[in-house]
Specification:
4 strands, about 65% helix
C-alpha cells in the first residue's frame, strides 16, 4: 500500500555490527529513565492558548505519532485529540492520516505563528505525549510504560484566516461542498487502506493456519509412527528371544495364524495311540514351561493397548483441530461476506448520488424551459390584446337588414310619381348612408399574410 503521509520515515536495518551496536546503545539510552536525555525532558503541563484572531498568519506542523494500540483506538478518540490541539495551541485545522505501517500515524496541525515555539517546546517534552496516552486510557501515575511517541516534526506554510465574513451564501455553500468532498476523499482512502490491511491480514492468517495444521498433522503422524515402530521392534525382539529359548526359528517354521488356531484339529489316522495323538504343541507347552514368557507376552499386549489408546487420542485431537480450523475458516468467510455487503452498500450509495445529481440537472433544465414558455405566453397574450383592441366595436350589417333596405327602395321606385315619399323611407335611406360612411369596405389581406400570422383567430 502506498504511503499516505509523506513525512513517515522508513525503517532501515543497520549495515554492519558496529552500526547495530550503536543503534542498540542509543535505544537503551532513550529507554533509560536515568539518562541525561530523559532528565532534560520538560515536564511542564499544557495550558490553554488564547483564541486565534481573524487574519492571523498560521503555520502547518507535520509530525508522526507511533503507537502500539492500532488505528481503531486512534480513530475513536480523533475528535478529542483535535480538541487538545485546539485548546492548547489555538489550532485552526487538524488532520490524521494513515501510513503503510500499522504503528505510524501522520498528523497535520495548523497553528498560529505565535504558537509555533510553544508547539515545538511541548513536542520535545513529555506533556503532549502524556496527554495523548491519558486520552487512550494509559495513566502515567499508575504505569511507567509510554505508548505514544512523537517524531519527525516538519514545518510548512499555513493558510491565513479570512479578515471579513461578508461572502455570499453561494460562496459559503461552495466552500462547504469542497470541504465535504475532501472529507469524502479522505474517508475513501481510509476505507481502501483498511480493506488492504484486512486482505493482507486475512491472507497471512489463512496461510498461518494452513501451515500450522500441516505441521501439526505431520508431527503427530511422525510421532505415532515412530512409537509404533519402536513398540513393534520391541515385541519382535521379545518374541525372538522367547522362541530362541525353545530352539525355534520363526523364519523356518510356519507360524500358525489365529484362523488356523481356531479351526478344529484334523482327523487322526487310525492305528496311532491316543497318547501320541494328543501331545501338546510348542505353543501350548510355552506358557506351562516358562511363566516369565507369559508375563512378557502380557506386558507386550498391555504396551500395545496403551499405544493404541495414545494413537486414538492423537487422532481425536487431530480431528478436533481440523474442526476448529474449519470453524475459523467459516468465520473468515462470514467476515468476507460482510465486507462484500459493505462494498455493495457503498456502490448503491454512489449510484443513488449520481441519480440525485441527474435529477437535479433535469429539474434545472425544466425550470429554464418553464421560464422560456412563460415569456412566450406573455408575448402571445400581449399580441392578442393588441389585435383585440384594433377590431371594430359595432356589428357589421347582416344580409337580412340589407334585403329589407333593398325591398324598401324597390317599393319606393314602383310607386307612382304623384305619391310623395313617407318619413319612414327617408329615415331608412339616411340611416343606410350613415352606416356606409361609418363602416367603409376594408381590403382583404393576402393569403400569405393570413397564413404567416400565428396569432390570428380562426373564423367561426
Amino acid at each position: 500500500m502506498a504511503t499516505l503521509f509523506g513525512f513517515a520515515s522508513s525503517k532501515t536495518e543497520p549495515k554492519d555490527a558496529d552500526d547495530a551496536a550503536a543503534t542498540a546503545e542509543e535505544g537503551a539510552t532513550d529507554a533509560s529513565p536515568t539518562s541525561p536525555q530523559a532528565a532534560e525532558e520538560d515536564d511542564t503541563p499544557l495550558f490553554e492558548a488564547p483564541e486565534t484572531e481573524v487574519g492571523a498568519q498560521t503555520s502547518c506542523m507535520h509530525f508522526v505519532a507511533r503507537s502500539k494500540l492500532g488505528w481503531i483506538a486512534w480513530k475513536e478518540m480523533e475528535a478529542t485529540l483535535y480538541s487538545i490541539f485546539e485548546r492548547s495551541f489555538g489550532a485552526t485545522r487538524c488532520e490524521m492520516k494513515f501510513s503503510d505501517s500499522l504503528e505510524d500515524f501522520g498528523f497535520e496541525v495548523e497553528v498560529p505563528n505565535t504558537e509555533v515555539e510553544k508547539f515545538k517546546k511541548f513536542f520535545k517534552g513529555k506533556a503532549l505525549a502524556q496527554e495523548i496516552d491519558m486520552l487512550h486510557g494509559i495513566d502515567p501515575l499508575t504505569t511507567s510504560r509510554r505508548d505514544a511517541k512523537l517524531v519527525n516534526m516538519k514545518k510548512t506554510l499555513g493558510s491565513t484566516l479570512q479578515e471579513t465574513d461578508v461572502r455570499s451564501s453561494i460562496e459559503v455553500l461552495t466552500k462547504r461542498f469542497k470541504a465535504l468532498e475532501q472529507v469524502g476523499v479522505n474517508r475513501d482512502r481510509e476505507v481502501s487502506a483498511i480493506q488492504d490491511q484486512f486482505a493482507f491480514m486475512q491472507t497471512t492468517m489463512l496461510k498461518r493456519f494452513d501451515d500450522t495444521g500441516a505441521r501439526f498433522q505431520a508431527k503427530m503422524e511422525d510421532a505415532v509412527w515412530k512409537k509404533m515402530g519402536a513398540v513393534e521392534k520391541e515385541i519382535r525382539d521379545s518374541v525372538q528371544q522367547d522362541l530362541a529359548v525353545l530352539n525355534m526359528n520363526p523364519m523356518e517354521k510356519q507360524v500358525s495364524t489365529p484362523t488356523a488356531a481356531a479351526a478344529p484339529p484334523p482327523p487322526q489316522p487310525q492305528g496311532i495311540p491316543p497318547a501320541l495323538s494328543t501331545a501338546p504343541s510348542a505353543a501350548q507347552l510355552l506358557p506351562a514351561e516358562d511363566p516369565i514368557l507369559r508375563q512378557r507376552a502380557e506386558t507386550a499386549e498391555e504396551t500395545l493397548a496403551s499405544v493404541t489408546l495414545e494413537r486414538d487420542a492423537a487422532r481425536q485431537e487431530l480431528q478436533a483441530s481440523q474442526r476448529r480450523l474449519e470453524e475459523m475458516r467459516g468465520e473468515l468467510a462470514k467476515v468476507s461476506e460482510d465486507f462484500g455487503k459493505l462494498r455493495d452498500v457503498e456502490e448503491a450509495r454512489a449510484a443513488l448520488a449520481a441519480q440525485f445529481e441527474a435529477l437535479n440537472r433535469d429539474a434545472g433544465e425544466m425550470r429554464t424551459e418553464r421560464e422560456l414558455l412563460r415569456k412566450e405566453l406573455a408575448e402571445a397574450q400581449a399580441e392578442q390584446e393588441a389585435l383585440n383592441a384594433r377590431k371594430p366595436t359595432e356589428p357589421a350589417p347582416t344580409v337580412e337588414t340589407k334585403a329589407n333596405e333593398a325591398s324598401a327602395v324597390v317599393a319606393q321606385t314602383t310607386e307612382p310619381a304623384t305619391v310623395p315619399r313617407t318619413d319612414e323611407a327617408t329615415a331608412e335611406a339616411s340611416s343606410l348612408s350613415e352606416f356606409i360612411r361609418e363602416n367603409p369596405v376594408k381590403e382583404k389581406k393576402e393569403p400569405d399574410e393570413v397564413e404567416s400570422d400565428p396569432w390570428r383567430e380562426s373564423p367561426r
